[in-house]
Design a protein that fits this description.
Layout lengths: L7 H19 L2 H12 L5 E17 L6 E16 L4 E7 L3 H14 L2 H32 L13
Antiparallel strand pairs: 1-2, 2-3
Helix pairs in contact: 1-3, 1-4, 2-3, 2-4
Length: 159
């Protein structure tokens, strides 16, 4: 009998993989190229399965977060799939038209699936990418706060 329920280990693994790929997608291309160069020399070879291919996706939104869905517009994306010589298949889809970044991200996804490589990918790529993104968000928040205007007005007296 086929068990259609996922156990908590699979759910945790999937969540961790999504987190790692989100960090890779957010990372600047120059950062990924530098980290990829360090990792690729010692890792298994990969062959392209698909792409990189550039295409469009439809962005959908909801009014107020809970209303009826509507088409917001289109965005360019690039996707790639690679297979390592050890059999793992990595997929990536990134916003924009950067084919090299998509290929590198797919390769990193495939490597992340290998237990022996997972910790190295987390330490050398995912952790620093998440830290850089958090720092950029903090910097933008500080810049926004510095330009914030307080429209509070003092109560007028009846003069």
């Amino acid at each position: 009998m086929l068990n259609m329920t996922s156990n908590s280990d699979d759910a945790g693994h999937d969540t961790a993989r999504r987190r790692a790929m989100s960090a890779v997608a957010l990372a600047p291309t120059a950062f990924l190229k530098a980290r990829y160069a360090d990792v690729a020399a010692a890792s298994p070879a990969a062959v392209p399965v698909r792409g990189p291919e550039v295409g469009l996706v439809m962005l959908r939104g909801r009014a107020g977060g809970g209303g009826a869905a509507f088409n917001l517009g289109e965005a360019s994306v690039c996707r790639a799939t690679v297979r390592l010589e050890t059999g793992e298949v990595g997929h990536a889809m990134i916003l924009g038209r950067d084919a090299e970044k998509a290929r590198i991200a797919a390769y990193i996804d495939a490597l992340w699936q290998i237990d022996a490589w997972r910790e190295r990918i987390e330490v050398e790529i995912v952790g620093p990418a998440l830290a850089a993104d958090a720092e950029a968000l903090k910097r933008r928040a500080e810049e926004t706060e510095a330009t914030r205007v307080d429209f509070f007005t003092v109560a007028r007296g009846e003069d």
